[in-house]
Amino acid sequence: MKNPTTFTLALIASLSLLIMSGCGQDQAKSSTPGKTAVKQTLRTTSLLGTVSDNTGPLKTGTVSLLSENGKTLASTELNNSQRYEIQVPAGTDLPVVLSYTPGPNAPKDAPLISVVIHPDASKYDINPTTTAIAKQAKAMGGYTHNNMVQAAESTAHVPDANKTTAGFRGDPTTQYGGWH
User: Is the pLDDT of residue 26 over 90?
Assistant: First the structure.
């Protein structure tokens, strides 16, 4: 070796390239494309809203909080009121499903559902529109934010004037049937 400085610089450059290429490979292996980070509730959270069908308010029955695979996490009874409030335990993985089941003397229609996908939102109405949105999002591949937005846009009938900033009249988080 005629010039030790050139050799040292070449060695440092080679090691740097190896380290940098190794870091990139580790990151590529650890992240899986198409997967989103699991969201969780950070603390016990109250969800509240109303339950209704196409004929009006529903005042008897049960509202249940279900994991995405159907496990019951909590439930509450509607006692002559269409309003419900249910507690989501801290550390609960989202999405979760709010499911309304009619009381024993009510007609046995299919349950109504609404999907909770954001840990910071607390108002979720349960009605035929939220049920249609949830079913369509599930059919599109699952309860992700993008699927819920696409399902809401194709399910809810919103006048074109309401889709613009100038024409919208209200809270955008409740524009599509109460989910947000």
Answer: no
pLDDT at 21 over 60: no
Over residues 117-142, the pLDDT tens digits come to 999 899 999 999 999 999 999 999 99
Higher pLDDT, 100 or 26: 100
Residue located via tokens 């190896």: 18
Q: Report yes or no on whether pTM surpasses 0.70.
A: no
Centre a 10 Å sphere on the Cβ of residue 137 and count the other Cβ atoms it contains: 25
CA gap 164, 89 in Å, rounded: 37
Separation in Å, CA 16 to CA 5, 23, 103: 16, 11, 68
pLDDT at 65 over 60: yes
- Backbone conformation region of residue 124, classed left if phi is above 0, alpha if psi is from -120 to 50, else beta: beta
In order of 130, 133, 140, the CA distances from 154 in angstroms are 12, 8, 12
